[in-house]
Amino acid sequence: MQMTTAELRSLMPSAIAWAKAQQRLVLQHGACLTESQLALAQLAGVRRPGMIRILVVPAIPMPEEKALRRAATNHLFPKVIHGLTLGYGIYLQRCAAHLRPLQAHEFRHVHQYEQYPTLEAGLARFLGDVRARGANAPHEIDARKFEGEIRAAMGTTDIPAVVRPGVWFSPV
Q1: SS3 letters for 14-72?
Q2: In terms of CB atoms within 10 Å, which of 45, 123, 134, 140 comes out highest?
Q3: What's the CA gap between 137 and 77, in Å, rounded?
Q4: Domain locations in the chain?
């Protein structure tokens, strides 16, 4: 069953607090981008790539609060998640952190966040779109398109897409 707009709205304060805390953690403990990553972030349209930090983790963290965790796992996050971008903070799962298409996908999300005045505004838009459209949310389509362009430029079509419509929970 699809999450309602009212349900998402009631979770937004918790989601924003969690996202801000996670972004702070990544910005404090994450690594600066390499020269090649800086170039890729610029290619993704990021205006301030030097602000980005990447934290490589065994698994992408999930919210601890019960209701938010349930919403994330059942409605808002894909079934398979190798990266998560929160403003200038990017989590990458260790098993996939080296993949340039994944980095490209997440850098495109940074670019998207830059279009909003605050993390809160971007997050509200992104979560609302994912609630309504799942993997067909405009920001995911845009990130997959950029990711595909990078895969094509690399001459590799055998690298699986980071996020495919089939691996998202359906917004039925």
Answers
A1: HHHHHHHHHHHHHHHHCEECCHHHHHHHHHCCCCCHHHCEEEEECCCCCCCCHHHHHHH
A2: 140
A3: 12
A4: 5-158
